[in-house]
Amino acid sequence: SFFGTSGAAPVAAGAFALVLEANPELGYRDVMHIVARTARIPSLTQTNGWIINGAGFHVSDRFGFGVIDVAQMIALSQNW
């Protein structure tokens, strides 16, 4: 089976590669900010446990910033 961190890591790596292809000038901190700004809260989960951190982003101990949105990441990276 292909799930959990074994499945998530290559999917995320592919997403990051697309972002860097859209804007090769980005550094790792830029990519981290883009992920945080574009992630969305999973619709199939309870909203319990989500807080707003000091930077104003929703964050969860279980889901981090949420589900990556590759299309939004690419769009934001092109104008970063």
From TrEMBL:
<comment type="similarity">
    <text>Belongs to the peptidase S8 family.</text>
</comment>
<dbReference type="GO" id="GO:0005802">
    <property type="term" value="C:trans-Golgi network"/>
</dbReference>
<keyword id="KW-1015">Disulfide bond</keyword>
<dbReference type="InterPro" id="IPR023828">
    <property type="entry name" value="Peptidase_S8_Ser-AS"/>
</dbReference>
<dbReference type="InterPro" id="IPR000209">
    <property type="entry name" value="Peptidase_S8/S53_dom"/>
</dbReference>
<dbReference type="GO" id="GO:0016485">
    <property type="term" value="P:protein processing"/>
</dbReference>
<keyword id="KW-0378">Hydrolase</keyword>
<dbReference type="Pfam" id="PF00082">
    <property type="entry name" value="Peptidase_S8"/>
</dbReference>
<protein>
    <recommendedName>
        <fullName>Peptidase S8/S53 domain-containing protein</fullName>
    </recommendedName>
</protein>
<dbReference type="GO" id="GO:0000139">
    <property type="term" value="C:Golgi membrane"/>
</dbReference>
<dbReference type="InterPro" id="IPR036852">
    <property type="entry name" value="Peptidase_S8/S53_dom_sf"/>
</dbReference>
<feature type="domain" description="Peptidase S8/S53">
    <location>
        <begin position="3"/>
        <end position="66"/>
    </location>
</feature>
<keyword id="KW-0720">Serine protease</keyword>
<keyword id="KW-0645">Protease</keyword>
<dbReference type="GO" id="GO:0004252">
    <property type="term" value="F:serine-type endopeptidase activity"/>
</dbReference>
